[in-house]
Sequence to fold (293 residues):
Amino acid sequence: MHTALAAHAIGRRTGGARPVPPVDLDAATLTDLYVTRRLDDPAIAARLGVPTWRVTTRRRELRVTRPPVPPPNPDPPPAPPATELRRLYLDERLPTAAIGARYGTDPKTARRWLRAVAIEVRPRTGREHRHTLDLTELRELYQDRQWTAVEIAAHLDTTIRLVLRTLHDAGVPVRRGGTRPRRRPPKETRLVAALYADPEVTAVLRRHRVPRRPRPGDIASRFPSPVPLTAQLLAALYADPGLSARQIELLTGQPHEQILDALHRAGIPVRRPTGSSPWLTRLRERGGPSRGP
Fold:
């Protein structure tokens, strides 16, 4: 640098670099700026006219730090009535994960609710009540409804390993990775056709002005706008012909979980989630589809 300046006859400044003013801050002043007012080091340095590193160095010398901000923890939802917990857990045999999800909380909170009202919680590890699984129900959930092993395990309050082992022992082909197939199964297509071919079902749809969507396809394409659920429509489909929540899903486009919640809100007694729906049982007796959602 010096050689280049001399070669171009550029004079050199004397006195060295311009001194940086010191940071004369005590701990109280720096705490007020950094902690109370929440100013960062560059903002404090701009006020003092000094480089940021001088403020950072001084702050570390004085050990001025901000306390960690606690993460936001929303208040847990209020516990449902004891009668509702007994109905969901003892009568409908819902797992704690499903009960917690219904009220927007986790399984741990649901288990605490159950213990608070003296309901004995089923063991989560041994699951003595789940040594064996109903193979008929397992085939219907896995093959016909195309549920994954994870979904079946949560629904039956058992382990994924037990679900897969039961399927293997029964000779049921297990899908790679436990995922759903991309194409809709032909049986579901036949089930949709059977629903629209039932005079009692179509009469209910016509009476409640539910649009017909018999063409094959996924729910989103068949029902871009799901049919609004009313207590009268639910009672007419669920109680009279005896459709299941998943079969009502095929006719309305509403997810079956929301249909179950709507049934509970309407005060319509919900059947236990085992076996086939009354409508499907009658259809089989008449020689219809062997299985369906």
Observations:
- The longest helix spans residues 186-197.
- The chain has 17 helices and no strands.
- The mean pLDDT is 79.
